[in-house]
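Re: Re: token formats

Sure, here are both.
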Amino acid sequence: MTPDVTTAAAGTASLVQSVDWVAIAPPLIAAAIALVVLLADLFLPPARKPLLGWITVAGLVAALAALVPLRTGSRSTFCLTANPDACSYTVDQFAFVIQALVLGGALLTALLSMKDTEEKLPAGEFWFLLLSSAAGAALLPAARDLATLVVALEVASLPAFALVGLKRGDRLSSEAALKFFLSSVTATAVMLLGVSFVYAATGTLHLTEIATKLADVPGQLGTVAETGVVLTLVGFAFKTAAAPFHFWVPDTYVGAPLPVAAYLSVVGKAVGFSGLILVTVVAFPAYADVWGPALAVLAALTMTIGNAAAVRQAATRAHSAVRLLAWSSVGQAGYLLVPIAAAAYSGDDKVGATVAYALMYAVVNLGAFAVAALVARGKPLNRLTDYRGLYAERPLAALALAFFLLCLAGLPPGIIGLFAKVTVFSAAVDAGLGWLAVVMAVNVVVALYYYLRWTAILFRSPEPAEEASEAAGTPARPVRSRVPAPLAVAIALTATVGVVLSGLPQLALHFASVTLF
């Protein structure tokens, strides 16, 4: 909505603006429910604390419902009175899709966390931090000035530090939170320095105005502008876990509660990539010759390092399943970078491939973490060997995990994973980045090894020692516990969405061809 500008008697424009409450409703609802949960936690007795989780779920559902009026068209608010086209908050197709992704990811994380908040984690703090982070994550894709972008990024990130370290008394959790905090603070400092240089060179923080002014920077400010662009990109490279800024990922995922690791792998990644898309495609198109080649090299390096490290994971190592998912997420980040790099060579329509791939990845990766959370209830070390014979013990969970892994690998019946990879591959080829397409193809083949190895473990017979103990009349495994209902719903929901998408794989191709800006 454009600002409500009225003319005073003196002939000057009023600075009073009307706020488009419908446009800002999704992040606003999440923030409001966070405050409700924080206050309710003060008055609810311990026996009633589980109610906070259901309030959180209801709030996230309401935030998702608030997106319905925004599905068509574009709405803007907090615009400059002198230039109504320069706005701080815009909900277009890009913002709508990313907001749906992050709020849906937060909702699934809430379902995964229900039992943990009853047994291990402080409920009030957990739900407040999750909702606060989700509010920042929902705000970021709609941010259209650098100040709002940085604030939204930090609102999404700061609660995540505490979520990672919320397992009190756990050494791994404390180390993970510290490493995550230090790396993220470093990224923010570098990014803020870059933003200050960009502001010094252009005199504005609005992305559209920056794009116009960077196209005609005075000669004496050219170095300042170019340095600002590079430093801003380095800051986002940390946030997206792009190599060589990925070192915090494995230990952070292992030390964090599993639902939080799932949240970081999907929502955290969506936040970083949406911010990177906004600054490159919207604000810095004039410097495409700088960030295009840089992102192409980062993409190749990231996918290679991530897949190489995932292949080396020993199946008997403690937490090897989570470590494999962590290194897999680094490799997947490399694929997500490819269309952004391609946009520097052939236009911003290529970023649709990144968004299409992110939607597929979010669904199946959350599903994989959901099954990992289920297995961890009986085997807290969560080794790959702990998944041996899962099909015999929990056939539906094993089939769901096998489907998720095949989607990530891009193999049938996970057709949506194959088509998502095709869209990314096509973006590189169309942009003339043939060498990057070759690197991606090699990495996809390498990734098949560890995805198929894990899939095969699910269907193997139990260990011989376990079979002998069963013959002796003693149980080799603990009595199978009942799956918590919220966890079962999360697994079923992600599996259903994945199957539907695999039945309609052309949606990935169609979405990738849509111009988002």
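Second one below.
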Amino acid sequence: MAQGASKVLRSYTSGGWQVGEGDGAPLHDAVTGAEVARISSAGIDMAAALDHGRRVGGPALRELTFHQRAALLKALASHLRENRDELYALSAKTGATRGDSQFDIDGGIGVLFSYSSKGRRELPNDTVYVDGGVEPLSKGGTFQAQHIATPLRGVAVQINAFNFPAWGPLEKFAPAFLAGVPSLVKPASQTAYLTEKLVELIVNSGLLPEGSLQLISGSAGDLLDHVTGQDLVSFTGSASTAQKLRAHPAIVRNSVRFNAEADSLNCSILGPDATPGTTEFDLYVKQLVTEMTVKAGQKCTAIRRAFVPADLLDDVAEAARERLAKIKVGNPAHPDVRMGALASLEQREEVRRSLKALRGAGTIVFGDPETVEVLDADAEKGAFHSPVLLKGDPDRAEPHEVEAFGPVSTLMPYTSVEQVVDYAARGQGSLAGSVVSGDAAFAREVVLGVAPWHGRLLVLDADDAKESTGHGSPMPALVHGGPGRAGGGEEMGGIRGVLHHMQRTAVQASPNVLSQVTGQWVEGAPRREEGTHPFRKSLAELKIGDAVVAGPRPVTDEDVAHFAEFTGDTFYAHTDEAAARENPLFGGIVAHGYLVVSFAAGLFVSPEPGPVLANYGLENLRFLTPVKPGDDLTVTLTCKQITPRENADYGEVRWDADVTNQNQESVAKYDVLTLVAKENR
């Protein structure tokens, strides 16, 4: 390295930190222009990094259950939150304000917390995910099928964009880790110094199994040459780069799962009802200016096309001008600054080039593409750019094809729902869109019209405004991606993002084998009815298939009448013989469904204190055959699934309940959920 040069960013691969060969390319502070670091991945063995992830990281992750991985995500999120000031300090060098940094850093930490919570609530404490119900394949029930999902045996290669150096890696890492697949992160060079610090904090925490997270600082080199059919590639960036990567020979040859989240010309639509003075009008203008200025407009979800009713165009333009005039641009450290710099001088030049094309189809109503007044900074050394709002012609191609990836948006008029739906679709696929209107019928028509071109749609009105997360905020529980130009992929989306990293397999077998494979009792598999009542068994003693058969219990006219009077449920089918006889489904008085469930509970319960701590719910309840006075009820309760809870002295047990009559017909089927102590006290 040349004397006095900045440090070369490190990569973390094959179990250790490594520095690329040579002096590296310089990276600059977006605010001052000063050199922050250099970057090089020359000499890093990409094939070895992938092999390390597959050979070391993958097996270690697959030994953990979903709940154990979820607990690690929570611990990691807490660790990063405690050390985020180190990330904030570097984030300022990317041109980000404090608010921008929170959007990026706190947003990424929030994804970890969210996936931790979803993993514990929606996934089993197991290593196998059961996808859907059992599919019967034979008349006698001895041949059935079940879809399962298991982790892919490769590495999730994650290529991220420059605009979110913390959130970008974390939102890809969280679902991959929860699925049991190791990640290899390759950040964009401009802001990779923040990602390097993020990975350093993660590695130094000692929380994660070795090999579950690796980092490439610099060019990807020949990385993609070594991917296999068990690996995944996720990319965030330009549509043109996504096309090149998607066509990489190894990706095509090995049918590698490829997910792209690309740039898109997102739109926001103002409803005709939202005239000046209405809450929705103000919300629209505020949202537009926010999306133009947060992260200096460098968000893949930012509003690029703002459609408004033709007769409101001038009103919106004037209101937006007034708001934009109050935005102070400059050094993010200055307390009055509300918009920082673009990520680099190169990015500023790219925005200026795009603006030249947009000006051919419209006129500027606010801002100057070439100059900007800044606070506490040098306007030329820093990558500063004025917010620019244009009025454009929606019938020209440029507003629907050219994206200035910065603080730029174009106002355009429309005259009907059909027209604005057509204009929105001309973007050829977007990550996010919004409709701002107090007219629910208008909102419905627009949403259904534009949905095929969008991954996410926000409808903003006076009712949800206070709690809305905004147009440009991807949420962990919601899909982030979009069709067409937006890349055609999906990230996050709750458990959908986890399943993207797993292989769905249809297993055809006997009920007994399916129970063994899935860890869940399947109807037709053996039951164990002898010995100790299953409610007397702790979690440590209980086994899948443990069962109790209880009954019969006769149902009388007096039972039905008493239940009706006691509960107040005097529906005619339970109380009026003549009317009930006319009902084509019943042909006479029938017992209440919940009377049947209550009788079943009375049959299978073990009343003395024991390991069963609580009954906390019923699921999938179906009443299948009417129960009439004179029928005899028998219940079969079978241990279906056992889910120990991490860091607790109890777990959840799911029981299959099947209530039958004297003819062995099922009258009710449902799942009973109980909390059971891990050990007898």
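The mean pLDDT is 94. Residues 98-122 form the longest helix (25 residues).
- S.
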